[in-house]
Amino acid sequence: ESHIEAAVVEAQDLPPAEQQKARQRYQQFRDLPPAEQQRLREGFHKYQSLPPEQREQLRERWQDMTPEQRQKNQQLLEKAAFQRANCFMRIKQPAEEVAAYREKAMKGYEQFLTLFTNSPLASKALNGKGQVQLELGQRDEAVKAYDQAAALAPVYMLIAMIRSLHDCSGGAVA
């Protein structure tokens, strides 16, 4: 893709720390599902189609933000992405659309975990992903998600143990 090659050439003029950030962001992009990559490409093309003055205004607003404002913006985005997936997980009506909402929840949790790998909400997202996978009949994948959640937050270890007891006892936990 020619725009990637152009970005690589342009990145060679950046300081080493900025080059590393660019490589990390590119890898994050490559790890996204194809549909999310396409959504981001469309957003980028939309940005590129803005008049130069408008693009400059957006850049200036971002540059005018203090590091604290940028961090707060990132935290809000992180929480919003998590809550979006959670909302899709909790929708129970209309019954004929619940499966579609669970698929949206799954995609939301996966996107969240890709974008916010080190988030304090990652264990909750993995637990939610496991719940969705169980509802969708993906038991093995759910167990993996629960195990990952337990590795991040010990409280989920207890949940995993209870589920294991439930499975071993044929559904009856004393």
Low-confidence stretches: none
What's the helical proportion of residues?
over 70%
Oligomeric category: single chain
The helix-and-strand class reads mainly alpha
* Count of distinct strands: 0
Work out the radius of gyration: 20 Å
How would you characterize the largest beta sheet? none
Shape: elongated
- Calculate the terminal CA-CA distance, rounded to whole Å: 59 Å
Estimated share of beta-strand residues: under 5%
Order of helices and strands: HHHHHHHHH
The helix count comes to: 9
Tell me, rounded to a whole number, the average pLDDT.
Answer: 82
Report on the structure:
It is a single chain. The chain is mainly alpha-helical and 174 residues long. 80% of the residues lie in helices and 0% in strands. It contains nine helices and no strands. The chain has helices spanning 2-11, 16-31, 34-49, 52-64, 67-90, 98-115, 122-135, 139-152, 155-168. Helix 5 packs antiparallel against helix 6 (98-115), helix 5 runs parallel beside helix 7 and helix 7 (122-135) packs antiparallel against helix 8 (139-152). The longest helix is centred in the middle third of the chain and has 24 residues, at 67-90. The mean pLDDT is 82.
